[in-house]
Amino acid sequence: MASPIVQTDPRPATVLQVLPRLQSGGVERTAVDVAAALVAAGCRAIVVSAGGQMVHELTRVGAEHIQLPVESKSPWTIWRNISRLADLIKAENVDIVHARSRAPAWSAYFAARRTGRPFVTTVAFNSAKRKINRFKKFYSSIMARGDLVIANSYYTAENVRANFGVPDVRVRVIPRGINLDIFDPAAVSPERIIQLAQAWRLDAGVPVVMMPARITRAKGHATLIQAMAQVARPGVQCLMVGTDGGKEDLRQELEKLATECGVGGTVRFVGDCRDMAAAYMLADVVVSASTEPESFGRTLVEAQAMGRVVVATDHGGARETVVEGQSGWLVPPGDVMEMANALRTALVLPAAVRAAMGAKAQARARQLYAKEAMTGATLAVYNELLAGRPV
C-alpha cells in the first residue's frame, strides 16, 4: 500500500510531476503509477506535459493533467514555461515539484525556486554511456539540482555522484517498478498466447529467442544476429520485438545482415507488440544485447517476472537485475561468441532446470521490482521533503 503523505496543513498534499509527454515509455509509466499512488493516499496529483495517448489513463486514476509545451528544448519556450509553472504552482497550492526529464526540469526548477517549493528529480538517463561535451553536461546537470535526487538504479546513482558531484545525502535509489498484476504468468490466458503465436506464425514447440527492444544501433541487434549465426541450432526462431521508430533503413540493414549471416529465415522482425506479457510466454530465452550500458533495463525485469531466463550484456543496470547463473547469463558487450555460448547453454537446458531458473528469476523480480515498492518509496521521498519544509 502507498505510504501516507505527511500533511503541512488541513488540505491534502498536492504533488506536481513534470515530463515532456505522456505518450509511452518507462518514464511516462512511472509518472502515471506514482500519480495513482498519490490519489490512493488521499493526495492530489497533477501532471504537466505536452499531452499524449496516456493522458486518458492518467485521468482515469483520478489525477489531473495540464497541457503545456514543456517538451520543447527551445530556450525561449523553457523561459516562458517558468512563469507558466510558477503561476500554476501558486494557483493550485502545489507542495512539491517533481521533474522527470531535462528540458522541463529547467523550467520546473526555477518555478519551484521562485515559489519556494521543494524540488525533486528522477534521473533515468545514463550520463556515462558516451563522452559528452560541456554544453550537454551542463544541460543534463539540471537533474542533479533537486533537493533530493531519485536514481532508478545504483548504477545511475553512481553516475550522478561521479559526473555531477551530488552528495550521497541527497541521493535516493528507487528502482523502476513493474505491474505484477500484468506481468504474471498466471494472468495470461492460453488464448492470448495462441493468438500472438498465430499472428507471428510460430510453429508449436519451436524454441524462441526473443529480443524486445526498439530498433536502434545501441540496442545491439547486430550482435544478436551474428550470435544466432554461431548458434547453428535448427528450428530456433529469433524474434526482434519492437518498433523501428521510423528507422526503416536500419531495420532493412539488419535484415540484410541476417541474410548474409545465413539466418534470414531464423531472425524475424515482428514490429511493436501491445501484449508483452503474452509475448514473454512464447519465449524460451529473452535477450538484452545493448552495446551501451543502460540505466535500468525494464524488459529484463519484465521477462524475469514472467519466469523467463535471460541473457544480457554485462554492464549498467543489468548487473543489478540479472543474477549470473541463477536467473540468466551476463556476457561482454558486443561479444558475438560469448553471446552465442550463452544462448547455446540456455537452449540446451533441460526443461526442469530452465523452469527452476525461471522460478528464481520470478521470485526475485517480485521481491525487488514491484510497482508498489517503487511508488511507496517515492511517496516516502515526498514525505521527507514535506517534513523538512518550514511551515
Automatic annotation (TrEMBL):
<dbReference type="InterPro" id="IPR050194">
    <property type="entry name" value="Glycosyltransferase_grp1"/>
</dbReference>
<dbReference type="InterPro" id="IPR001296">
    <property type="entry name" value="Glyco_trans_1"/>
</dbReference>
<dbReference type="InterPro" id="IPR028098">
    <property type="entry name" value="Glyco_trans_4-like_N"/>
</dbReference>
<feature type="domain" description="Glycosyl transferase family 1">
    <location>
        <begin position="198"/>
        <end position="362"/>
    </location>
</feature>
<protein>
    <submittedName>
        <fullName>Glycosyltransferase family 4 protein</fullName>
    </submittedName>
</protein>
<dbReference type="Pfam" id="PF00534">
    <property type="entry name" value="Glycos_transf_1"/>
</dbReference>
<feature type="domain" description="Glycosyltransferase subfamily 4-like N-terminal">
    <location>
        <begin position="25"/>
        <end position="181"/>
    </location>
</feature>
<dbReference type="Pfam" id="PF13439">
    <property type="entry name" value="Glyco_transf_4"/>
</dbReference>
